[in-house]
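My convention is simple: the sequence line spells out the residues, with the fold written below as integer tokens. I include a record here:
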Amino acid sequence: MAAVVVLTAAAAAVVVVRRREARLRCRAVSAELMAGCAHRDSEALRVQLEGFRRRLDREIAEASVLSAAGLVVDEAWASAPSRIDPSSEGGTL
């Protein structure tokens, strides 16, 4: 009878140890998967942010060029000797 109790206790201990090892393996695999997903997502976000930064830089450059062109036109208009009224369209016939 004592042998049956010892064998049962040993079998229970083996089951407990194997379940614990299985849980630890599951946690390790889960951690690897989560790390892989985090890396993938951060890379995708980095690519999207780089694209946004390039588009924003292009928009800022275009706005800067338009602003500079507007200043040139304003200066040219202000220094024009004829002082033509820009609101009048055409002349008299």
